[in-house]
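Good morning C.,

I know you're traveling, so I'll keep this short. The sequence:
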Amino acid sequence: MKLTKKVLAVLAAVVVSVALIGCASKPKVTIVELENKGTIQNVRTPAWVTTYVQYGINRVQALGEYRDKYCVIGEETGVNLQFVTSWADNFSAQQRIGAMLRTTIASEYQARVQGQAQSVGGAASSASEGTGSGTYTQEIDSVINAIITATYTGAQRESDWWSLRRRYDPDNKEVFTDEYTAYVLYLIPKSEFNRQVAMALETSVRADSTLYQVTIDIAKQILTNGMADWGKE
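The tokens, ready to paste straight into the viewer:
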């Protein structure tokens, strides 16, 4: 079945992306840490926090100690320590899991549908075949919405941290902003989570769907090899 160029454009829009606009130079800012959760007891900041702050969750996921786990990190910033620590105490991993699954599954669809288009040597098809962009958009949205709203078990709270940082203009240190940031780390056993996501995929697509085989292939890939794009945003 051949796919139209419109379909590929729609699929690309599904994947979360950030556009950088303009080339104007940004104001100079210096950031220093004033204190953190471990200051009083002289406890060093955990590697997962420093790695996350500098490089993002994808690099945290690559740490050897999390080889068999998926990492989920929540983050909240505010001017009040009690506010951010209270937020951390009440943080639920489910919403963050859903957001990360949306990005991961959308990327899988995009890669596989583009691969199909290239394998058939073109991107032309007729609306009568049911391959119009509206059809694919609806079906992809339906599957992804079912995946992200499903309940997943196994996520365990591993650790939390908070930090107080000051941002200031190096040319005028009297102008500054102090902010607290709280971080929460949850871990999910990969094998069990892969099984749950694969099952959710299989049960979310109709047998007569134009995306049925693609969806089943994604489910099999996740069940066998996991989610390589987990953490990539």
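Safe travels,
E.
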